[in-house]
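Task: sequence design from structure.
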């Protein structure tokens, strides 16, 4: 997620958009000349630009959004061989990198560029098609709203949006779609506003529901879990992992992952050999770092940001799955099949 006001001199010229906590993120990456880094959520290229300020540093940028990749072409040219941008999911970063790297940074959530483009359908403040797909592939938010059962809609909105009125919202959506298709951001926001009355007037009633649909449509939590496991495998010993989150569920997954990986597994009479597995990460941030008031004043979207950083140890990566960190919800395939 990026701010739209800051401008600093970096490799390739002034950066129009500076990511939240960018300087702290680059500090924790410990960028060095000759180092190889992954900007796993390239967006507007803010992190990549900041990393490239260090002479000799090289960056691989990853983004699901073809628009972000296209916009980064100028920076690729200006970086003179030190930047490569790949259109892909960041869960595939191990395959993309091909060899160990010195650092990886994740800036989770939707970018300001996506929010500001009405045709992408991410924002209830801008009338547009109800899309929300970061990679512009697969079912859209409109498809989910049209096909999901009331029960599944309520579960998605309650779990991923932490919306207390999730059942009422789901009921209202199902009733409204019975009369006509819900195809635009404005139409959905209006339906939600009829049943959700926000106490905080600065927070739109549709905020949590839109957030839930976006996370669900893009399978963001599973992507994150798979990417963290891939980062563990591809980071060099002493390589750094930096993650900036904007949602409590994302932060819980990152925190749980780092907690698990920074401790030796508990012994078990069923698996006594497990106690020999050493920690794979050393946590650098005892508590998550958050933006200062000045940064929030410039970019209000930064208010929920949290940064966590860790350093890779020499231990072999663990083979254990991270699926236990994910909430139990229907898959998008279940929804599109019309699961009852």
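Answer:
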């Amino acid at each position: 997620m990026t701010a739209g006001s800051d401008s600093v001199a970096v490799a390739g010229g002034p950066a129009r958009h500076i990511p939240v906590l960018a300087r702290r993120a680059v500090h924790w990456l410990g960028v060095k000349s000759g180092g190889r880094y992954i900007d796993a959520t390239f967006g507007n290229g803010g992190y990549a630009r900041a990393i490239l300020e260090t002479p000799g540093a090289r960056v691989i940028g990853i983004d699901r959004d073809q628009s972000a990749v296209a916009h980064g072409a100028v920076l690729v040219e200006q970086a003179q061989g030190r930047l490569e941008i790949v259109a892909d999911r960041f869960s595939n970063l191990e395959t993309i990198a091909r060899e160990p790297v010195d650092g990886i940074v994740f800036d989770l959530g939707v970018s300001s560029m996506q929010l500001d483009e009405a045709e992408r359908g991410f924002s209830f403040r801008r009338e547009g098609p109800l899309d929300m797909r970061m990679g512009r592939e697969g079912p859209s938010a409109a498809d989910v709203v049209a096909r999901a059962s009331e029960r599944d809609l309520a579960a998605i909105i309650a779990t991923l949006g932490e919306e207390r009125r999730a059942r009422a919202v789901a009921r209202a959506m199902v009733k409204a779609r019975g009369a006509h298709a819900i195809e635009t951001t404005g139409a959905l926001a209006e339906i939600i506003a009829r049943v959700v009355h926000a106490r905080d007037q600065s927070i739109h009633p549709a905020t949590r529901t839109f957030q839930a649909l976006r996370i669900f449509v893009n399978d963001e939590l599973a992507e994150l879990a798979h990417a963290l496991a891939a980062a563990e495998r591809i980071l060099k010993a002493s390589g750094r992992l930096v993650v900036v989150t904007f949602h409590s569920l994302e932060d819980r997954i990152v925190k749980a992952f780092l907690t698990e990986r920074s401790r030796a597994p508990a012994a078990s009479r069923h698996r006594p050999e497990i106690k020999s597995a050493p920690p794979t990460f050393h946590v650098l941030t005892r508590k998550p770092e958050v933006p200062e008031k000045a940064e929030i004043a410039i970019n209000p979207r930064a208010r929920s940001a949290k940064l966590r950083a860790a350093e890779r140890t020499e231990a072999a990566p663990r083979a254990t799955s991270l699926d236990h960190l994910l909430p139990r919800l229907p898959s998008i395939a279940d929804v599109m099949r019309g699961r009852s």
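The domain at 124-217+328-336 is CATH 1.10.150.170 (DNA polymerase; domain 1).
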